[in-house]
Design brief:
single chain; 434 residues; alpha+beta; Adenine-n6-DNA-methyltransferase TaqI, Chain A, domain 2; 3 domains; five-stranded mixed sheet; 13 helices; 21% strand
Length: 434
């Protein structure tokens, strides 16, 4: 098959059809009836594909496959996976790359596998190409726009892609991957620190193994035994709770200029972190004044009260939410850290009292009746003294990751399109301490 003509805008890079760079034809994943699910090899589903750019050793569902099926549909390092379908156009063709699997793994039927010829193509470079605006636009050009958006493997392989020399592919992908590696390392650190904080909370407020617990006497309160000097009170009696609101979308003046941070539930679910600072949308001062919901202070604890009920995060700046939230304002009796982990621990209970025909939601009056423990002054102070350094470390790592992502996202489109000459380019990514 003839190659495309050189693209003069990209330092003489070729443009070729994707199929020219593959070691074998693209392949759709496996579909098998329910009785084959639950054991066997790991299987990448759409959930993993949309959640992770790098498919490694995440927890996955399992599927029983024959040796012949596994031979055809196994995954190996460097395979690119593309979403065949999505409820939204932007999700069609979302790609992930397989990296360092520790056990046999396959992929489901809604996913396309592309396996590259290593003599012509560096898979990591083309993963980053398809993450860039140029690559996303190419995939969008072949996506169907019906009720469920999708792409076909036959269209995917005919896409023209930029193809620099192999040594340039390797250098470009390594530069970008250095950023992603540090981001992943920081996320690992965040998870470790968060788990330490979570275990401290459980030891103190669930198992009652706080400093000095040996001398504490348990007393009865609302049918539950708690340490003497502690209280069990409805959360609504202990902290102030806020709802949210949405300014009229018909009035542009309520949204522009966007000066006030305004969270929606998807901000929290997409962030997935203990602290959150940025929101996808912001409202104007006029929008803030147009409806009744209040602006709440930094280090309040926000919880999704509908859809994905119980997702929690602590805001880092004055903010406001839409109506899909209950926000708790910490005080001297209950810290933001206790509220955060208390909400995590009580997620099942919160979900169980939610109701609604169209979608489940917990209303504020029901939420305010859920009991929370208030420790004695000494224990509260000791708990906060332990939590604050851990919280600050998580904040610092999140801030560092935000900086790394900004730099990566600036470099990525320039590198994979040839706007930056990598011939003499050397970019060091410093892993400075937070």
């Amino acid at each position: 098959m003839a190659r495309g003509s050189p693209n003069s805008t990209n330092q003489g890079w070729e443009q070729v059809r994707l199929e020219e760079l593959l070691a074998e034809p693209v392949r759709n994943g496996v579909y098998k009836p329910k009785e084959y699910h639950g054991s066997g090899v790991k299987m990448v589903n759409m959930g993993e594909l949309f959640a992770y750019d790098f498919i490694t050793n995440q927890e996955m569902r399992r599927l029983e496959l024959t040796e012949e099926e596994m031979e055809k549909s196994s995954l190996r390092e460097g395979d690119l996976l593309f979403a065949r379908r999505s409820l939204i156009l932007e999700g069609s063709g979302k790609s992930s790359i397989v990296m360092r699997l520790s056990e046999p793994t396959t992929f489901e039927s809604s996913i396309i596998r592309a396996r590259f010829d290593s003599s012509r193509a560096n898979p990591l470079f083309f993963f980053y190409f398809f993450k860039s605006p140029r690559g996303r636009a190419a995939v969008a050009s072949i996506a169907t726009r019906t009720a469920v958006s999708g792409i076909r493997g036959s269209d995917l392989v005919r896409l023209k892609v930029d193809c620099p020399p192999l040594n340039h592919q390797r250098k470009i992908s390594q530069i970008i991957h250095n950023y992603d590696s540090l981001i992943q390392t920081n996320l690992h650190r965040i998870n470790i620190v968060g788990e330490i904080a979570r275990r401290i909370f459980i030891e103190w407020f669930v198992k009652f193994r706080f400093p000095g617990h040996e001398k504490a006497r348990l007393t009865e309160s609302s049918g539950r035994k708690i340490p003497g000097g502690w209280e069990l009170r409805p959360v609504g009696e202990v902290v102030e709770t806020f709802g949210g609101a949405t300014p009229s979308t018909k009035n542009p003046g309520y949204w522009n200029p966007g000066e006030v941070t305004w969270f929606t539930p998807s901000d929290l679910t997409e962030s997935g972190s203990m602290f959150i600072e940025e929101s996808a949308k912001a409202i104007s001062r006029a929008g803030l004044d147009s409806c009744s919901a209040k602006l709440f202070p930094p280090y309040s604890v926000m919880m999704n009260s509908r859809a994905t009920i119980g997702v929690v995060s602590i805001n880092k700046r004055h903010a406001r939410t839409n109506q899909g939230f209950i926000t708790c304002i910490p005080n001297e009796r209950v810290s933001a850290y206790q509220l955060y982990f208390w909400l995590e621990q009580n997620k099942e209970r919160i979900v169980s009292v939610a109701s609604g025909a169209t979608y489940k939601e917990i209303n504020r009056s029901e939420f305010r009746e859920i009991p929370i423990l208030i420790a004695d002054v000494q224990t509260r102070g000791a708990f906060l003294a332990l939590m604050e350094p851990l919280g600050k470390l998580i904040e610092a790592l999140l801030k560092k990751n935000a900086r790394l992502k900004r730099m990566r996202d600036i470099l990525l489109p320039k590198l994979v399109s040839g706007q930056l000459d990598v011939g003499d380019l050397e970019i060091k990514v410093e892993d400075d301490k937070p």
